[in-house]
């Protein structure tokens, strides 16, 4: 209810704003005419958009009012629901209490408590929903009164009734309390009246909210209709204004331009004074008009100049005819002279009289012919020199070809010889390698021999030792023989002393003595032999020692030999490698020489061809008539050479004859070629070579 | 006794022991020889004559040893193991003679022994009783009586 005043204010403002702004725009139409076209269009669109914004604002405000009304309606409906629920719970309480009194079952007491709680809950919810409401205080007061009445019923009817009911004697009192004359209905009625009052209040509020909603809806419709009508009106008005201010002048200009294109330059250009784009277009059309007027003026001047040029041309025609006559004379004379030149007659000169303009042609022709004659004479001489030169060249090329072939042959032989040498050196290297191996073996053998010699020395020492032992044994034998001899002598002495009785004994004694002496002699001989053999063994030891030292020397020398032979083998290998490279180089030289030989043959052929060409050239040149020397020109080559350049040719022609033997001696002999050359009658040949 | 036998029959044979002193060969009658033995080092006697080599112990008997070479005037002998001592009996005295070697036992007749030449002095004749010339050898028979020092002293 509090939102009604601003809502009505907003809806009233929109229709008043639209017509006021349009009036203002029409008022400034003079200055509006001078604005740019883009600005004009922008102002039009802005007017339409402003109208639509105003309409939208009015609609928005009415929608706000509607939303608030709907919220209030919902709150009232909730309150009515809660009041209905409370009335229902109230009835159920009473019903449950009566059920208990009828049946005496405690179950109905449980139901009574449950419904009482439901009643209070509904009232509490109602209190909560009334928070912030306009008539909150009245509502809360009514609800508290209902609660108090309910509590009174509970205290005065139920609690008292239950006490009575517990006592079977007073049970009837409890039933009486809820009877027709009992006080229970009075308590109940109070509560019911309060609840009915609350329900009635809420229904009144619902009706009020519904009337507010319908009013807001009708205002919204009105705002939309008025806004749309204003927008269409403004759009139509601006369209008419803009077409009048832009399209009309452009159409006028189009008409003027059509006139200008069709050649009407007297037409007046409109809207030149305007300051917008149309004014600029009009000024540009004015420039076109001025340019067209200027162009017509220039065309008139050109026509006049063309007439003057025609007169000049007819005057020149007669002059040309006179000149053609003079030119004919000069041309025929020149033609005669040129045909003479074409036939090779270089002695022809023009003698006719020419016009002063052509006099220069005659002089030039005569000078040209003279120059050609002189040049051809010089060329003839040069050709003769060239012929003799090409002859020499071809001769030299022949010699060069022959010598190159000889060189190639020599190189081939050299290559073959080098191959043999390479093979020999390779064999040498292999031989040196084998020799190195053999000397190695010899060294090993010599070392083994050294060991054998040492063993021999040891064996000799053993022999010496054995000899010493033999000597000792022989000494013992000698001693024994000596003693035996003495014993035999004593025996002989005793036998002699015994006289005749001892004769036999004496014989035995003498025999023993003889044996002893023989053994003594034998022992002595053995001793001599042993001493001799000892000496010889000594000598042998000495000799074997010498052999050992000699063998050591041999080992050392064989080692040196091995080193030397190894070096020889290495150098032989290097030699072999070097010779291989030399061989490759010689083979390359051989190839190059072969190529040279081929090339020299080509150049020989070319030089011969050159000589032929020189002859042909001389023949061609001889066709020209050159005046005084005409008699000798067609002679063969040798004669022509002799006639023209007798002094140089005398020196040149003998050369090939003398060069040939000189070449032969050089290629065959080499060293004593100079001596042979000294005997040659002409030194020119050697210089040529 | 042998002298007796020799005097009775000139063809009676006698036996001689031949030995060598230096390069010379000499001999003595075998009957005067008691024993022949190898060299044993002798113990010198003080103030003895030069040819007296000393004494040796021969089975408990003291035996004087005479260097025969020195006694005969040929120079001193350097005795070695191969030298020989000939033990002889002269009268009652036994003496050892040092000689170089014993050659052999000769069996000769009396007439083979030739007298010492007269040209020799009495001294020589007293030392060499006679000379035996056999098989190209010249063997002088030593007169043992002169060899001993006592005899020499008596003779002097």
Automatic annotation (TrEMBL), chain B:
Signal peptide: none
Gene3D superfamilies: CheA-289, Domain 4, SH3 Domains
Cited Pfam families: CheW (PF01584)
Occurrences of domain CheW-like (ranges): 13-153
SUPFAM superfamilies: CheW-like
InterPro entries xref list: CheW, CheW-like_dom_sf, CheW-lke_dom
Protein name: Chemotaxis protein CheW
Organism of provenance: Neoaquamicrobium sediminum
């Amino acid at each position: 209810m509090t939102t009604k005043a601003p809502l009505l204010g907003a809806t009233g403002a929109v229709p008043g704003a639209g017509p006021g702004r349009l009036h203002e725009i029409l008022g400034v139409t003079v200055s509006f005419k001078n604005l740019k076209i883009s600005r004009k269009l922008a102002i039009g669109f802005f007017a339409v958009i402003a109208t639509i914004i105003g309409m939208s604002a009015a609609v928005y405000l009415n929608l706000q009012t509607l939303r608030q009304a709907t919220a209030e309606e919902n709150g009232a409906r909730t309150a009515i629901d809660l009041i209905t629920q409370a009335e229902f719970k109230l009835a159920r309480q009473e019903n449950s209490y009566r059920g208990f009194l009828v049946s005496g079952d405690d179950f109905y007491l449980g139901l009574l408590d449950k419904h009482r709680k439901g009643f209070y809950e509904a009232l509490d919810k109602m209190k909560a929903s009334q928070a912030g409401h306009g008539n909150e205080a009245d509502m809360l007061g009514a609800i508290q009164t209902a609660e108090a009445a309910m509590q009174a019923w509970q205290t005065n009817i139920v609690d008292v009734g239950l006490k009575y009911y517990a006592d079977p004697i007073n049970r009837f009192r409890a039933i009486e309390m809820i009877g027709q004359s009992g006080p229970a209905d009075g308590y109940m009625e109070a509560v019911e009246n309060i609840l009915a009052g609350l329900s009635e209040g809420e229904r009144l509020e619902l009706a009020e909210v519904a009337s507010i909603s319908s009013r807001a809806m009708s205002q919204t419709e009105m705002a939309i209709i008025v806004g749309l009508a204003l927008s269409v009106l403004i759009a139509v008005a601006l369209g008419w204004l803009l077409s009048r201010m832009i399209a009309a002048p452009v159409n006028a200009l189009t008409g003027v331009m059509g006139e200008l294109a069709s050649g009407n330059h007297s037409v007046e250009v409109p809207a030149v004074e305007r300051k917008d784009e149309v004014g600029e277009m009009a000024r540009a059309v004015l420039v076109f008009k001025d340019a067209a007027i200027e162009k017509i003026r220039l065309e008139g001047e050109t026509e006049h100049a063309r007439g003057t040029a025609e007169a000049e041309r007819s005057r020149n025609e007669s002059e040309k005819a006179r000149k053609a006559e003079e030119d004919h004379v000069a041309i025929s004379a020149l033609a005669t002279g040129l045909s003479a030149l074409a036939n090779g007659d270089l002695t022809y000169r023009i003698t006719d009289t020419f016009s002063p303009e052509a006099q220069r042609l005659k002089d030039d022709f005569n000078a040209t012919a003279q120059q050609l004659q002189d040049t051809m004479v010089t060329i003839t001489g040069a050709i003769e020199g060239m012929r003799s030169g090409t002859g020499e060249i071809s001769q030299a090329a022949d010699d060069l070809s022959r010598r190159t072939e000889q060189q190639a042959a020599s190189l081939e032989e050299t290559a073959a010889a080098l191959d043999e040498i390479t093979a020999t050196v390779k064999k040498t290297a292999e031989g040196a390698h084998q020799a190195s191996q053999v000397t190695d073996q010899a060294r090993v053998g010599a070392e083994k021999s050294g060991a054998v010699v040492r063993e021999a020395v040891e064996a000799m020492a053993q022999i010496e030792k054995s000899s010493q032992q033999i000597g000792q044994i022989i000494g013992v034998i000698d001693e024994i023989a000596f003693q035996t001899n003495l014993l035999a002598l004593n025996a002989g002495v005793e036998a002699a002393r015994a006289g005749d009785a001892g004769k036999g004994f004496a014989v035995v004694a003498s025999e023993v003595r003889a044996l002893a002496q023989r053994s003594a002699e034998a022992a002595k001989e053995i001793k001599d032999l042993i001493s001799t053999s000892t000496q010889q063994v000594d000598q042998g030891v000495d000799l074997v020692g010498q052999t050992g030292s000699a063998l050591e020397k041999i080992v050392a020398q064989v080692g040196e030999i091995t080193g030397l032979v190894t070096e020889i083998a290495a150098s032989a290998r290097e030699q072999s490698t070097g010779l291989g490279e030399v061989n490759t180089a010689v083979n390359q030289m051989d190839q190059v020489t072969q190529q040279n030989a081929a090339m020299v043959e080509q150049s020989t052929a070319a030089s011969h061809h050159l000589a032929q060409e020189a002859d042909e050239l001389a023949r061609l040149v001889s066709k020209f008539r050159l005046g005084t020397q005409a008699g000798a020109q067609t002679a063969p080559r040798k004669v022509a050479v002799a006639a023209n350049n007798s002094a140089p040719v005398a020196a040149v022609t003998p050369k090939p004859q003398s060069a040939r033997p000189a070449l032969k001696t050089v290629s065959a002999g080499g060293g004593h070629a100079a001596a042979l050359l000294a005997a040659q009658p002409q030194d020119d040949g050697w210089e040529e070579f | 006794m042998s002298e007796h036998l020799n005097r009775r029959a000139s063809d009676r044979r006698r036996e001689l022991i031949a030995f060598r002193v230096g390069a010379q060969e000499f001999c003595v009658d075998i009957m005067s020889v008691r024993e022949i033995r190898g060299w044993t080092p002798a113990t010198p006697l003080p103030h003895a004559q030069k040819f007296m080599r000393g004494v040796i112990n021969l089975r408990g008997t003291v035996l004087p040893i005479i260097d025969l070479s020195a006694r005969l005037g040929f120079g001193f002998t350097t005795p070695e193991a191969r030298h020989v001592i000939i033990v002889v009996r002269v009268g009652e005295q036994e003496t050892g003679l040092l000689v170089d070697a014993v050659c052999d036992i000769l069996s000769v007749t009396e007439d083979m022994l030739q007298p010492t030449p007269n040209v020799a002095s009495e001294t020589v004749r007293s030392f060499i009783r006679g000379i035996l010339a056999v098989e190209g050898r010249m063997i002088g028979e030593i007169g043992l009586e002169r060899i001993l020092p006592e005899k020499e002293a008596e003779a002097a």
